[in-house]
Each structure stands twice: as structure tokens, then as C-alpha cells.
Amino acid sequence: KDGLTGKFLKGGSEITRIDFEDLGVETFQFQLDKEASTYPYLEGDYEVRLTAEDVDNSDISVTYPLKFNIKQEKKFDLVATVTKKKGAPDERIAFQLKITNSGNADDTFTLSARNTPRGWEVDFSDETGVAIAAGASKTVTITVTIDNEAKNGDKEEFLIDITSAGGVTKTQSFTIEVKDDVSNRFKQAPQG
């Protein structure tokens, strides 16, 4: 396929020329360049044609097909530096979640909330899916709106499922504790 490059190695060092003795055999390695091996190629079989040519006579050459298979790895990592916050009824609380596509292929991730209590809302900054290139990261915002009837001391855990288009799912939990300063509300209430 276009774009695949590599180098010949002998004894761990790159070589561009091999000297053969009469009817001799030389052993060497062909290594794909790092950029080529991490580039998000489609999964499947590939072929590189290796050509050796006599430096003294260009009419003498041999081409050898080298076949290999690239398997896509669909994997990712999650980092949430803050997973617990406090808030008042009807307040919107935002959490940041960093998704790193540690696989070798581009992927798209969808987020969904599980066990959201009645009266609470969970919203995502990227509703339609988060496209992340292989090796790249993206931070998404998860916003939770606390129920306006939540009571002081209520504590709710939210499970957020992150699913890759490759079918891998991981779960991140976030917790909010309601801290409602009722006495402050009475102080601010109009006198009548």
C-alpha cells in the first residue's frame, strides 16, 4: 500500500548494501518505520516488494514479496482528575473527562449516562460522538444539573459509559453531593 516505508537492518544497524560471497547467504531484517506501523491503516493483508540489485550490473536483480497483516487495536484510556463535587439544587456541575485513543486506528466514541435519578439531567459537550485519531486525546465536558428538589446531604453517583465504534466500553463514575445552605436562602428571601 502507498505510504508504507521501512529499512533493512543487520545486527541492529541500518544497511543499504549487502556484500555476498560466492553462493553465500546473508540474513537481515526489514523493519517498518515507526510512523508506518502506527499509521491508522485499514486492517488486513499488506505486501511490500523488496528488490535487491547488483551494484555492478543493474540487469541482475531479484524481487521478493514480503507479506504481513495489520490488526487494528481498538483501545482507549480515560482520565478524570475530579470525580466528586458538591452543588446546590438546580445548579449545573461540570466534569472533564479526557479520552485517549491508545489504539492504532482512528475511532469514534459515544457517551451515555446510566442510572440518572429522576429530576437530574446529564448532558455531554459532544452529543453525536467524539472522533479521535489514533494516538490522540480529546477532553469532553459532562454537565450534571441537580434536581431542584434535591435535599441537603443527598449524594448521587452517575455512571457514564464510553463506547468506541470498535465495540469496547468503559465506565467512569462521578459523584455529586448536595450542599444546600437553607439558612442562606431564608436570609435572601424578601421580607413581607
Short structural summary:
The chain is mainly beta and 192 residues long.
Describe the structure in your own words:
By secondary structure, this protein is mainly beta. Helices cover 6% and strands 49% of the residues. The chain is built from two helices and 14 strands; from the N terminus they run E-E-E-H-E-E-E-E-E-E-E-E-E-E-E-H. Strands 7-14-13-9-11 form a five-stranded mixed β-sheet, with no helix packed on it. The protein has a four-stranded antiparallel β-sheet with strand order 6-8-12-10, with no helix packed on it. A hairpin with a 7-residue loop joins strand 4 (44-53) and strand 5 (61-70). The model has no long low-confidence stretch (mean pLDDT 83).
**Beta-strand residue percentage:** over 45%
Which secondary-structure class do the elements indicate? mainly beta
Mean pLDDT: 83
Low-confidence stretches: none
Distance between the termini: 80 Å
Shape: rod-shaped
Helix-strand sequence: EEEHEEEEEEEEEEEH
The number of strands is: 14
Tally of alpha and pi helices = 2
Widest sheet, order of strands: 7-14-13-9-11
Using only C-alpha atoms, the radius of gyration works out to 29 Å
Helix content: under 10%
How do the strands and helices of this protein lay out in sequence?
Elements: E1 6-10, E2 13-15, E3 29-32, H1 34-38, E4 44-53, E5 61-70, E6 76-79, E7 84-87, E8 92-101, E9 107-114, E10 121-124, E11 130-132, E12 137-145, E13 155-164, E14 169-178, H2 182-188
Parallel strand pairs: 7-14
Antiparallel strand pairs: 1-2, 1-3, 4-5, 6-8, 8-12, 9-11, 9-13, 10-12, 13-14
